[in-house]
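Appendix B. Worked example

We walk through a single record from start to finish. Start with the input: the chain for ABC transporter substrate-binding protein, Aquipseudomonas alcaligenes, length 350.
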Amino acid sequence: MALRVLFLCCLSLVCATAQAASVVFLNPGFSHERFWLDYSHFMQDAAGDLDMQLEVLYGERDNEVILRNARQVLASPHKPDYLIFVNEQYLGPEILRMFADSGIRLFAVHSSLTDEQQQLAGGPRDKYPNWIGSLVTNDEEAGYLMAKALLRTAGDDAELVAFSGVKNTPSATLREEGLQRALREHPQVRLRQLLYGEWRQQRAYEQAKLLLPRYPQVNLVWSANDEMAFGVMQAAEEQGRHLRYTALNNSQRVLQARAEGRIGVLATGHFILGGCAMVMLHDHAAGMDFAERGGKAQMARLLRLVDAREAKHLMSRLERPDKGLDFRRFSATRNPALRQYACSIDELLR
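Next comes the structure step. The output line below is what the pipeline stores for this chain.
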């Protein structure tokens, strides 16, 4: 009898391992882009912690490549249990249509469908039942917090230029909305111009070279990410201008700049969002539906401002090969009484 019980336990363990949830992530970024590489790294880290299988396909910021990757998943004889996608360039509805009858469960992360898109396509588990959920971060709040901290340093009649990302990207639009909210609270600050630097340093540098001489009184720069902030900084230094900057990201370079005071306001934390999504899918596969713990569409308030000390500490933590974050601690399978997911970078900052 004891041998039979032992055999059944071993068989259950083997079956559980063989049936580990498999995930494909349609990463929209470049395969050499630091942010999206780190984003995928934390997803792989979560997959390892949770005994899941993860494949990452990079879209190289090209709609055709993203859709080609999607078709590759559909044509594969070994289809994943879950597909994670980003509504970059507003491709979400097309991806939902492609996978409608695939049997693969879909999950939106980072940028979900806009309100306008959902009027046609519906939300999770509506028109497309296999679209089971979404997880986004607090981009509007981050844009607001960055702007608010920057504008607090402004005197009367201060002038600002702003650099947003790719125009047809929900995260860029939301961060802009946060900027505009802060500006309404500081009517003494004049926004001279908002440009789309497409998240790239070289693009923002070229724009700033032409823009800054037009506005000699500008002393504040709001930037929706770190690369564009560094592009503007390069142009300003060449012109002998001393400006105050915001940035958003987790690169070693921007954390160092915040620690040294060259970047005055920095928001970060969203780089673990994909890892948090993996936790939710792990729980779903285990029969613990994340919808019962916060709903089908959830927002993780990961983005927060970090001061110079926190930036220095985070920089040292992210240099570690294992990154030092155990995603199991966020899972309902480990904490059955969990009512709301609380994935965060607090553990990295301690």
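Two observations about the output. The first helix runs from residue 2 to 18. Residues 22-137+271-304+320-348 form a domain with the Rossmann fold fold (CATH 3.40.50.2300).
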